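Please decode residue identities from the backbone states below.
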């Protein structure tokens, strides 16, 4: 197993000399996280302005692009009751919203951690936008995690519907955090149930990065810590309730968790994978992450892992920014997705460190 990323360091060194000296750090304008549609200005320390189009598709899905792409409305197909949205379809079926886009665009799906804010996810998404990707931001609430039938399964289905209705995204990359494993596992369950319909994920997804993978063992601690990170008493009460909830409602909760776990551990994707992990993470247990990585390798997936001795849950880029970005850049370059190397800055300046 490529635990030390034995292949990637040389790639990183080759890319390092291409980095530009002009480091531009993204700062978000007030109210950005609350905006749901329209063209949003981003400001940079170098006084260069950039405009980003963002559209909230559902409560859990937000589309972001460097191009001005917006949806007029969101409708449901009367027969299937599925959300229908498309970016580039000259003859859309009834209920499908369409705007003109460039054929062959690249898409990065970024699945956030529990209680993650849009502005925080965008700090990761910006790396991909600088490389010409459009972004599909996915978030899962504690309620959606606790009730899979009306929560995680719906999110996963909407993700599949988006990809199904937008075949122009022939290259899709995944960068997911924490309970994103649960959401993605639900997507893989849908693929198990309807492989012919959803087999496009195996054709279009070219690589994935997993940061702080949370399996079933970490769900109770994950919800309590996300809701009340600084209140030990309330956090433990929440963890106790979640444990009771998961075990009490077997058919409505635990059954789906087990299905999701099986689909995730035995993923049909055989694409190169980079995993970030910490030996001290109490939520994304390192032993469990190692087990998942071993299983994926058994199935034929090329797995690389970056492990820290002591790094907080989903905070690796903030604690180890240069290492995190170096591995990420080398991995993307290895896949041939680093279109603009000079825009992927490995060493953040002081302003970035404070943000």
């Amino acid at each position: 197993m490529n635990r030390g990323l034995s292949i990637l360091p040389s790639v990183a060194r080759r890319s390092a000399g291409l980095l530009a000296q002009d480091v531009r750090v993204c700062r978000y304008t007030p109210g950005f996280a609350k905006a749901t549609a329209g063209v949003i200005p981003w400001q940079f320390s170098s006084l260069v302005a950039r405009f980003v189009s963002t559209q909230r598709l559902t409560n859990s899905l937000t589309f972001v692009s460097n191009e001005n792409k917006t949806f007029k409305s969101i409708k449901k197909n009367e027969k299937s009751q599925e959300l229908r949205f498309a970016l580039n379809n000259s003859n859309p079926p009834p209920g499908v919203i369409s705007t003109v886009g460039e054929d062959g665009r690249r898409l990065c799906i970024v699945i956030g951690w529990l209680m993650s804010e849009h502005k925080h996810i965008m700090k990761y998404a910006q790396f991909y936008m600088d490389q010409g990707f459009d972004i599909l931001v996915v978030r899962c609430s504690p309620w959606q995690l606790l009730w899979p039938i009306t929560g995680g399964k719906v999110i996963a289905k909407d993700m599949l519907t988006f990809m199904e209705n937008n075949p122009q995204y022939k290259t899709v990359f995944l960068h997911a955090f924490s309970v994103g494993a649960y959401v993605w596992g639900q997507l893989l369950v849908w693929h198990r149930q309807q492989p012919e319909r959803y087999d496009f994920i195996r054709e279009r997804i070219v690589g994935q990065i997993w940061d702080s993978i949370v399996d079933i063992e970490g769900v109770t601690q994950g919800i309590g810590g996300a809701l009340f990170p600084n209140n030990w008493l309330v956090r433990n009460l929440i963890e106790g309730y979640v444990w009771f909830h998961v075990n009490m409602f077997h058919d409505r909760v635990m059954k789906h968790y087990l299905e999701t776990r099986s689909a995730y551990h035995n993923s049909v994707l055989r694409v190169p994978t980079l995993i970030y992990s910490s030996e001290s993470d109490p939520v994304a247990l390192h032993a469990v992450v190692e087990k998942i990585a071993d299983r994926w390798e058994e199935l034929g997936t090329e797995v690389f892992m970056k492990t820290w001795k002591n790094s907080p849950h989903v905070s690796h880029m903030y604690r180890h920014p240069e290492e995190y970005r170096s591995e990420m850049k080398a991995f993307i370059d290895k896949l041939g997705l680093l279109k603009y190397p000079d825009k992927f800055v490995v060493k953040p300046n002081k302003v970035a460190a404070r943000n």
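Observation: Residues 182 and 260 are 7 Å apart (CA to CA).
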